[in-house]
Amino acid sequence: DMARDARKVYLTAGKTYRLEKTLKELEEGAQHSGTTDSELSELEDKVASAAAQVQQAESEISDIESRIAALSAAGLTVKPVEKARKQSSRQAACLHSPGPASSSAGESSDDIKAMPGPQGFRRKFNSALEITGLDDSFDRNSAYRGSLTQRNPNGKNRRVERLFAKPVMTHLS
Hints:
This protein is mostly helical. The chain has one domain. It has 5 helices and 2 strands. The protein has a two-stranded antiparallel ribbon with strand order 1-2. It starts with a helix and ends in a 36-residue tail after the last helix.
């Protein structure tokens, strides 16, 4: 589940970067050419659509990051792990080329930090995430088996004893 979420973050970050690049190209194209009103309207529609897709992708990334944070808070350690991926040379060049937010001297490429813009997404998600330390930190036979957020911590198969109030007074007729 965690690997699937990490893959989703990685793919969504790449999609966000491509959409922002397309948006920039469309804006530059509109500024540097004499366009008719209908062409301008079409470009505005494309820009609005790309902006909405970027916002949706960022929302998905935020959701997955919050899941990762919840897992970390639950005691599971999440750290990056390199996996071989099939990529076209163009995608690999885009994902590994340094951008304006270049790394400082003391920062390794495996550091996970919040960085603005698509360069941050490329650096942050260029490797998959892996949950480690499961053998040491998680006892599968523990008494607690519920969700951290919504389930009854006593487990779903245990019968709940219901207490019903007794009437305070009885009606005598």
